[in-house]
Amino acid sequence: MNKMITKTIVVALLGAVLAACGGDDRKSLRVGAKPFAESMILAEMIAQMAEAEGIQVERSIPFGLTPKIMEAVKQDVLDVYPEYNGTSLTFLGQAPTSDGAVSTATVEKLFKPLGLELTGKFGFSNDYAMVMTRERARDLGVSTIGDLTSKSGIRFVVDEDFVQRPADGLQQMNRRYGITGSSTSTHPVGTEGKDKIVSALLDGTADVGELFMTDGQIAEYDLVVLADNLGFFPVYEVAPLVRSDALASLKGLRATLEKLTGKITPADMQAMNKAVDLDAQSAASVAANFLVSKGLLPEDARGSGAAKIAVVGDPGVSRGIDTARALRAIRSGYAGSDLDLSNSATPLETLAAGEARVAIVGAEAFYRLGDEGPVAKGNAEAFAVLGYKSGHLVGLANGADSITGMDKIATGPRGSGSAQVLAMLLHSFGMAGKVEVLHSDEGARAQLLAMTKGDHDGVFLMAPSKDRAIASLMRNGFYKLVSLDEWAQGGHTAKFSFIRPATIPAGTYPNQSGAVTTVSTQFVLASPAKTVQTAGEVGPGTAGIDSSAAIPVSASAVESIRESLGSMDVIDPAIPVHGSLVPEITVVDKSLPFSADVSIINILMILFTIWVLYLIALPSPRDFKMPEDL
Q1: Which of 211, 287, 314, 491 could lock onto 215 through a cystine, CB 3.0 to 4.6 A?
Q2: 520 and 391 within one domain
């Protein structure tokens, strides 16, 4: 009887264990995403909507590229992720189509035997976009992909996924259009890869790039989308791809996902992608803010509770690729936080006052111009190098050939790197007060056009080499770059050591036949200084800033930010460096430590040694002679 009871209990327990391990009794929703902004934003929307419904969520955001993530949902590793009908067709071995309804119907039919479903579409299609800069497209006379067939040596820059796609990738596009003789460079999928694609287009090392129609970079950098005149690319409408058993076992999940149907326009998605890719906001915050704006989440869900990290730049710091890259790196050092970028005429003073945590500035910002030359402020320390900016002194083609021949020079707003470096150059040349400086925040185009009207003789701008705005304006032949030979030849770097001589190579800009001597400064990330030091000429010091309210960037955050930025140059030795980057020197005390016990033992050992030596020195008994009178 006891054996029967025991057996019954064991069977019951085993049944309970097996029931608990059953695959259909789900307690959480496993949400994944591909490794780019759009997919992560949409995945966060799914996750946050499910959580609001009371469903527990496990996030894998991001998870992996299409082959990996599609296989994960097939094999019950993930429950749901955002997928595109055109991509699904391709990876299910079907011919792509530009008809969204047909595409979706085919995909749903093929997914059903796999236990997968597409719920309601989000409302937009994110098609591939082959893009060019407006200037390069005009030079080549290109407006469609088909126009590339008549051009030789086209240089493509794409992400790694695009060259691996089996039916709608680069090689298939080239075969469909008959494009030959091209070259290709690739970059990883994701925001960093998009930065590199756009950078290659802007600096002229590539002709055609691959992006998505909803990428914020297209509008931000005024890129031209080439028309797909043969209809090669299929439609890419996006919807949650979800396991049928998850829909069946998680109460309210289907209704929750369907609330997102048709809620996102292409413009909405482009703005959200820009917020992540260029403004360094987290995908979670961007998703939450959108859902709140549509009434799908309560107001208190806005921002997803993320802390704000204030970042400050001088008035000349814009939201370009370098700035976006810097912001994403800073966010990596402050996990879970969003960034708030602002501009200030005195960025390091704003930093020292505790009103910002990190500054994006040039080397010139670490100094103020005194009566005798530069005086170090000492209120900040650099911890990462972003790059360099070169001085561009632009004059009229038939105007002065030297800065000494100019009476009026326009530059950036007060406090900008351009204005600061120009003031230091004029001071060094003994021209301060003799040249009228016009400050403007209207940008290069407005300043150069004003010069053609006779408003001033030159425009001085600190900008990266191959600056697009300058290049565009120099095409008309009205302007020229004016050399700053006087700086390199006059030995001015002895006093202004952080302003380095540099050269803009011939051909960097349209109508630039020869190399131009100029100056450059390093562009860095800065932290509030830990200590306030006495002001000095050149070197660490302060201008009396009270830094008690400032919180320096921690050593661990510095390490994360630098790791995110990757390889970089050494910080200019004329700039104060963050303490965590200063090599630690361990001083070894080579003197013998004093110990009374050891000293006594040493003395006894010495005495013993002397006694032994004395015994050795005594005459041997064999050498002893008896007296003769005995």
Answers
A1: 211
A2: yes
Residue 578 has which token pair? 């963050």
d(CA 588, CA 298): 62
Q: 260 phi and psi, to 5 degrees?
A: -85, -5
Give residue 523's identity as a one-letter amino acid code: F
Residue 143 within a domain: yes
Number of separate domains in the chain: 3
Neighbours of 585 (CB within 10 A): 5
Q: 89 burial class (0-12, 13-18, 19+ CB within 10 angstroms)?
A: buried
What are the structure tokens assigned to 604, written together?
């006894």
CA distance 249 to 261: 21
Q: Which of 283, 305, 327 is the last residue of a domain?
A: 305
CA nearest to 48, candidates 298, 239, 262, 246: 298
577 and 475, same structural domain?
A: yes
Rg (CA), the chain: 35
Residue 390 located in a structural domain: yes
Same-domain check for residues 139 and 115? no
Q: Is residue 614 part of a domain?
A: no
Unique residue bearing structure tokens 């450059």: 520
Going by C-alpha positions, the residue among 361, 334, 198, 344 that lies closest to residue 274 is: 198
CA 194-84-131 angle, to 5 degrees, is 35
Q: Give CA–CA dist 486/517, Å, rounded.
A: 9
CA distances in angstroms from 407 to 394, 399, 483, listed in the order given: 14, 12, 16
**For the stretch 489-526, what's the b/e string if a residue is b when 16 or more beta carbons lie within 10 angstroms of its beta carbon?**
eeebbeebbbbbebebeeebbbebeeebbbbbbbbbbb
Q: Where are the beta strands (DSSP E) in 406-491?
A: 408-411, 436-439, 458-463, 479-481
First-to-last alpha carbon distance for the chain, in angstroms, is 120
Whether the CB-CB separation of 170 and 254 falls below 8 Å is answered with no
Q: Which residue, among 492, 488, 493, 490, has the nearest Cα to 503 in the 3D structure?
A: 488
Detail the DSSP E strand segments found in 75-148. 80-84, 116-118, 128-133
Which CATH number fits the domain that encloses residue 324?
Answer: 3.40.190.10
Task: Give the tens place of pLDDT for each residue, 144-202.
Answer: 999 999 998 999 999 998 998 888 899 999 999 999 999 999 998 888 888 889 989 98
615: CB partners within 8 A, 6+ apart: none
Residue numbers of the domain that contains 28: 21-122+236-305
Task: Classify 467 as helix, strand or coil.
Answer: coil
518: in domain: yes
| CA of residue 208 relative to chain centroid, distance | 22
| Local structure of residue 213 (DSSP, 8 states) | T
Give the C-alpha separation, 427 to 420, whole Å: 11
| 534 shares a domain with 425 | yes
Distance CA 522, CA 131 (A): 31
The band of 278, judged by pLDDT with boundaries at 50, 70 and 90, is confident
Going by pLDDT thresholds of 50, 70 and 90, the confidence category of residue 11 is very low
